[in-house]
Design a protein that fits this description.
The protein is mainly beta and 179 residues long. The chain has helices at 24-31, 115-118, and strands spanning 40-47, 54-55, 60-66, 72-77, 80-81, 95-101, 106-107, 113-114, 123-126, 132-135, 138-145, 151-158, 164-165, 168-175. A hairpin with a 4-residue loop joins strand 6 and strand 7 (106-107).
Length: 179
């Protein structure tokens, strides 16, 4: 080791501060050592499939995805839609999501979680073509290791009462084939 303390690129976000009940600094510290680790590369998994993205009012879709065993789930990315009349009221599309780790028979939550609870409105950029805005990921309170088959079931239900495009993205540090 070269004597330097590893700094996670996530810690460079100027809007991340250590506040009571906020998990970002805790998980950033846990992930910092992996920032320069050649054994992991960042990968994004999206649910649902491209042909299932547009959900009708109160529509429901179940989507299965496989994440490479040995990988680490660190958070979620939800696009923010800018409210042009009042930017402080900007929010992600309205839906609920429930994630089940099939190998562990473990649900990430007892009840489906609102997209508002998974959003993390720390703007990074705004699209020049539409009202979408990129945001810093909503980090888990601790990294979730992918074990067993790596199979996850994602259940999504539209809750706004209007047909809309839903893209739920999971941020993963995927284990590389080193050898």
């Amino acid at each position: 080791m070269n004597g330097l303390i590893p700094i996670s690129p996530l810690a460079l976000n100027q809007l991340t501060r250590d506040y009571w009940s906020q998990y970002d600094p805790a998980i950033i510290a846990q992930l910092a050592a992996l920032a320069e680790d050649p054994c992991y590369t960042i990968k994004f998994y999206k649910a649902p499939a491209d042909d299932q993205e547009v959900l009708p009012a109160f529509g429901y879709v179940t989507y299965g995805m496989r994440i490479s065993p040995g990988s680490i789930i660190f958070g979620f990315y939800l696009p923010m839609v800018v409210n042009t009349e009042s930017p402080t009221l900007s929010a992600p599309p309205q839906y609920t999501v429930r994630i089940t780790d099939v190998s562990l028979e473990h649900c990430f939550s007892d009840e489906p979680i609102s997209s508002l609870m998974l959003s993390n409105f720390k703007p990074e950029f705004q699209s020049a073509v539409d009202t979408n805005m990129g945001s810093f990921p909503s980090l888990l309170c601790a990294p979730h290791p992918v074990t067993g088959s790596g199979q996850f079931d994602i259940e999504i239900q539209e809750t706004s009462g209007e047909s809309q495009r839903i893209q739920f993205v999971i941020g993963v540090l995927e284990v590389c084939n080193v050898g």
